[in-house]
Amino acid sequence: MAEGGIEHSVSDTESVPRQSSLYSAHLRNYVEQTSVEVCNIMTHLGYGEEIRRRRILKYRKRDRIVNAKWIYITFITAGSKAEGLTCCYESDYENVFVPKDVLCVEAGVDLHTIPNDI
After folding, report:
1. How far apart (Å, rounded) are the C-alpha atoms in residues 88 and 42?
2. Strands 6-10 and 15-19
3. pLDDT digits over 61-86, tens only?
């Protein structure tokens, strides 16, 4: 069959047209161009790689400041904030509060092999 034509896949009940590889290559190119354009738009809206990286650093800095004040709990930002996807007041906060005097290990781990400062 010539490149770019339509093939017919025959099932038990009917013939179903299927596009050949030339159309698929065009579709892949269109999808790739669309993906690049969506990426550009998301960057302009504040969801680009650089702004996300800055948000992540700011939330980590905030965690360090909070953790310096608390003695018994470690505060960890989680979710979309930790990934830098949302601004300060854009969405909810997902935080993890970890007690410092608790040690969680997998079954079968010998507690005596873990250093005391962990």
Report:
1. 18
2. antiparallel
3. 999 999 999 999 999 999 999 998 88
Confidence of residue 1 (pLDDT cuts 50, 70, 90): very low
> Is 106 buried (19+), middle (13-18) or exposed (0-12) by CB count in 10 A?
exposed
pTM reported for the whole predicted model: 0.57
SS3 content of the chain, % helix, strand, coil (to 5): 45, 20, 35
Residue ranges of domains in the chain: 19-118
CB-based contact 7:18 (threshold 8 Å): yes
pLDDT for residue 56: 94
